[in-house]
Amino acid sequence: MKRIKLTTWIGIAMVAGIAVGYTCNALAPDAAAAKNIASYFSIVTDIFLRLIKMIIAPLVLGTLVAGLASMGDAKAVGRIGGKALGWFIAASFCSLMIGLVMANVLRPGDSVGVPLPDVGTATNLKTASLNLKDFITHVFPKSIFEAMAHNEILQILIFSLFFGIALGQINNHTTNSLVKTTEDLVHVMLKVTDYVMRFAPIGVFAAVAAVITTQGLGILVVYGRYMASFFLALATLWVLLITAGYCVLGKDVFRLLKLIRGPMLVGFSTASSESVYPKLMEQLEKFGIKDKVTGFVLPLGYSFNLDGSMMYTAFAALFISQAYDLPLTLGQQITMLLVLMVSSKGIAGVPRASLVVVAAVLPMFGLPEAGLLLVLGVDHFLDMGRTVTNVLGNAIATAVVAKWENAIDPVSEEVAEADETLPQPEPIAIAKAA
User: Theoretical Cys-Cys bridge with 318: which of 103, 311, 342, 374, CB 3.0 to 4.6 Å?
Assistant: First the structure.
């Protein structure tokens, strides 16, 4: 019997979620009823995301410690980290620049076609904590157990840096056993990931159905121009990222894209980068990237390389400027780009992170914070695009750094062509059952 690929099941689940969500939205007597129906779908989505989150902390800790211990050299860590941050900064600048250019060229804020919220209306988005001092302080953990309990990836990374390098510097029987135990932990967590990902189609179906039930498809028509402009800007960013990856990886970049299409589809459907992390790490391993690079660069990218989210901050700010007919000069736009370059680095763990950054930046340039209310209705759909772009950007960044470090192992054709499939009964098991 031919096995059906997991990616295919996820695609089917998305279509089914749209159909069921549209039906529920049409049959619901009012918005409150639709929201109540969506809450039942959200139960399934929340369970799936919780299962994913329970994997992240031990997987990040295990891969980082095992990888750093195997390096045994703090200079190698600094070299890899420097290359990764260099790529992240360049990608961030290009993302923001594309957002500014495309917003100016396409001008999605002209003639919005919906009533503008009053300038003094509050958005209730918490921006007070979005400052450089708190971000830098928050990077360093008070307790590794607290950091793991809250899935604070950057804090886990800091602890793992100290622990992994220290472990690599001490060479005796006890530490060798500890390294082996850590490596075994990674393999076990990847197996757990495989089990959890079998529920991905169900989680995707529920996530899509919940959103469509609440919002309906009509809102996509109202904001069609804005959404189309944003996704065109994302497509431009994709071309740039893939081209940059091709310059370093050559034709292997297309093999990478084939391997990560499953995680990208899950990220797009759930609008959650966390839901993708364990599976993305597994697929990068199949690509041939050594664990020491994946375990270090990927968690770093989740905090510093959010290409889609950063592009959106620039795009949304200019959209609001156009909608309220408050044009910004070229100098103001360049200043905004530099401000966003800095402020966007502390948003990884903030709910509705991109909107929080935009809300914090708007008052600096005399733009009404209430403008965010214009896009809140379709933000989930835009977040789906932002998330899948973040996944693509981090996968390419990790592969590029691995290539620079000569840390990509050759893989067989069978592994290169492999794709995840849903489990099927083994023939011998069926024979025994008979």
Answer: 103
The owner of tokens 């990902």 is 197
Q: Please state the separation of Cα 306 from the chain's center in Å.
A: 7
Query: pLDDT per residue over 68-121, tens digit each?
Result: 777 666 677 788 888 998 999 899 899 999 999 999 998 888 876 666 666 655
Q: What's 414's DSSP letter? A: H
What are φ and ψ of residue 289, in 5° steps? -75, 135
**CA-CA distance, 288 to 410, in Å (whole number)?**
6
81 SS3 class: helix
* CA angle at 276 for the pair 225 and 301, rounded to the nearest 5°: 85
Token code pair at residue 262: 């499953």
- The tokens for 147 are 């950091």
pTM of the model: 0.78
Q: Report yes or no: 96 and 334 within 8 Å, Cβ to Cβ.
A: no
Nearest to 284 by CA among 414, 413, 391, 421: 391
Residue 205 CB-density burial (10 A; 0-12 exposed, 13-18 middle, 19+ buried): buried
Please report where in the chains the tokens 């800007």 appear, as a residue. 233
- Which residues, in sequence order, are bridge partners of residue 408? 289
Domains recognised in the chain with CATH numbers: 6-421 (1.10.3860.10)
Confidence of residue 344 (pLDDT cuts 50, 70, 90): low
Q: Report d(CA 252, CA 410) in Å as an integer.
A: 11
d(CA 16, CA 333): 42
Show Cβ contacts of residue 153 under 8 Å, excluding neighbours closer than 6 positions: 56, 60, 299, 302, 303, 348, 349
For residue 342, pLDDT beyond 90:
no
Cα angle at 398 between 392 and 404, to 5 degrees? 135
Placement of tokens 């835009």 in the chain: 382
Residue corresponding to tokens 């135990």: 181
DSSP-H helix ranges across 127-223: 132-139, 144-149, 153-169, 173-197, 200-215, 218-222
Instruction: State both tokens at 99.
Output: 């957002």
423's CB contacts (< 8 A; 6+ apart) are: 198
**Which residues have CB under 8 Å from 56's CB, separation 6+?**
151, 153, 274, 277, 278
Alpha-carbon distance 394 to 411, whole Å?
21
- The helix or strand, by DSSP H or E, that contains position 25, with its residue range, turns out to be helix 6-27
Partner residues linked to 289 by β-bridges: 408
Quote the distance between the C-alpha of residue 275 and its chain's center. 8
